[in-house]
Amino acid sequence: MSWLGNFKKKLHVLQSISPKDVLEILKSFEDFLLKEIKGKDHGLYERFKGLVKIKATKLAVVGDIHGDLGSLREIIGKLDEKLYGSEEAVTVFLGDYIDRGVESFETIMSIIMLKLEEPEKIVMLRGNHEPPENLIPYPHDFPFFLKMRFKDSWKKIYEQFFNIFQLLPLAAYVESKLFLVHGGIPVNTPSLKELALASEKPKLLEELLWNDPSDFIDEWMPSLRGAGKLFGINVTKKFIKQNNFVGIIRSHEPCDGFKLNHNGLVLTVFSRKGYPYFNRYASIVVINTNELKNMQYVIKHVVVF
Fold it and tell me: What is the pTM of this model?
């Protein structure tokens, strides 16, 4: 069955799913993550703590979705077109599955269900809207959507989701090629080993989830978001050089499909469109990692829809 066909099957199940069944699926996913976080090689990728190393030949990268099931349906269709039948493909979601969209539950739940069926083919990174307790974003309306749907059971379901948020990986990389993250690189340019342990270091965690690139500074400055920092081109160049990367793909910022910073070294992809951002276009990236030599190659393989 195609990925789109399987996705539609999941949506059909979610139309009438009971709170008990939701909790059972979420508990299965939590158990999976608890085992994986200790160190797990899935063949196409391997994980240690908060960091994932991508080993697949084909790689798709998906940015923020924010509860927009229509955009997710389009994304799954594009992935079917580009990757269907490939046994060497991994799709990395960069986080922010929820909030700002009334179908936040269906969005994150359908991705989790697909992940549980083919765990080696999907990586779910953490975004700032999958928050730690001390950094709740605004608006964080996911609990409200759960309350509307599940009435008295909403709190147990939210607590289970919250446990899962704490276990999601924080970043991924293709060795000597690409770094993938929701927000941005920490301004003190830590090593990959340090980033793997970032969930134990609140400041590092905050910067991975909240940082943004800026073309108006060379180093860094506090962010107007109230969390994280703005990082300049010198920070990017230092991080790329010390890890032998060609560039960075991240999400976190609304834009018309995609945007470039730091002379094309940082690519932002935003994968939902319409209200409340009113962007006309969204995008994903689909590349062959064997052919990846520079960011020009990556930019040519941005899929805008």
Answer: 0.98
Query: What pLDDT sits at residue 85?
Result: 81
Specify the 3-state DSSP secondary structure of 8. helix
Contact residues for 18 (Cβ-Cβ < 8 A; gap 6+): none
Mean pLDDT of 145-165: 98
Per-residue pLDDT for 95 more than 90?
yes
**Domains observed in the chain:** 3-304 (3.60.21.10)
Question: How would you classify the pairing of strands 258-261 and 302-304?
Answer: unpaired
Please report, in angstroms and rounded to a whole number, the separation of the first and last CA atoms in the chain: 24
Q: What is the pLDDT of residue 253?
A: 98
Which residues lie below 8 Å from residue 102, measured CB to CB, with a gap of 6+?
67, 145
Torsion of CA 125, 274, 149, 94, to 10 degrees: 0
Q: Output the DSSP codes for 88-114.
A: SEEEEE-S--SSSSTTHHHHHHHHHHH
Which positions are catalytic? 129
pLDDT in tens, 190-235: 999 999 999 999 999 999 999 999 999 999 999 999 999 999 999 9
CB-based burial label for 244 (10 Å; 0-12, 13-18, 19+)? exposed
